[in-house]
Amino acid sequence: QYPAGTTSPASGKVVGSGLSAPTGVAVDGVGNLYIGDSGNLYIIPFVSGALATSQQTKIASGLGTGNLNLAVDGEGDLFVADEANKQVVEIPNPQTELLLQSYPRITLGSGFTGPSAIATDSSGNVWVADGANLFEITIPWGSSIKVASGLQSPVTGLAVDPSGSVFVAGSNGLVWVPYSTTTGSLNINSQVLL
């Protein structure tokens, strides 16, 4: 962890203990940190203005041991692109006591072949990169719609800005896919390599 405005490695702080191969991290709106590591999900709560590293807790297990890419929405729900198990999983707000008492996971969408990156937008919908395809999963119903194809896989990261445009970290670099207000959809043919 690097505090805002710092660039020196000396100012960094190691967070997360007992991890073997972390592949995904996400931070929710209150500052809690989520880590995807070898089939497990952990939370490090943000308490009194800092990450409480001594309170690291496993909140889920049994996911794929490969790439686990994470995103959190405005409600505090955690979403996982589980590449090895070819699924997208929603874990309702892990801060609730119900989750720690085996609250069920929700599998979203279907037919994924290896989702590698995930993001949420300002409307609470979930975006998933699966191979060269980009899907949008509407929340709360969970139906997945392919909104674009032709991404340069492997995609390792996604972000959606407030306009609805998507940023894709892929094999050829960082690409911006603009949202067209005229068509009401992404314009994959106008993508820009950043």
Architecture overview:
It is a single chain. Helices cover about 0% and strands about 45% of the residues. The protein is mainly beta and about 190 residues long. A four-stranded antiparallel beta sheet has the order 1-2-3-6, with no helix packed on it. Strands 7-8-9-10 form a four-stranded antiparallel beta sheet, with no helix packed on it. A four-stranded antiparallel beta sheet has the order 11-12-13-14, with no helix packed on it.
What would the keywords be for this entry?
single chain; 194 residues; mainly beta; four-stranded antiparallel sheet
> Count of helices?
1
Portion of residues in beta strands equals: 35-45%
Q: What is the element string, with H for helices and E for strands? A: EEEEEEEEEHEEEEEEEEEEE
Strand order of the largest sheet: 1-2-3-6
Mean pLDDT: 88
What layout of secondary structure does this protein have?
Layout: E1 22-27, E2 33-37, E3 40-44, E4 46-47, E5 50-51, E6 57-60, E7 68-72, E8 78-82, E9 87-91, H1 97-100, E10 106-108, E11 115-120, E12 126-130, E13 133-137, E14 144-149, E15 157-160, E16 166-170, E17 173-177, E18 179-180, E19 185-186, E20 192-193
Antiparallel strand pairs: 1-2, 2-3, 3-6, 4-5, 7-8, 8-9, 9-10, 11-12, 12-13, 13-14, 15-16, 16-17, 17-20, 18-19
Provide a brief overview of the structure.
With 194 residues, this protein is an all-beta fold.
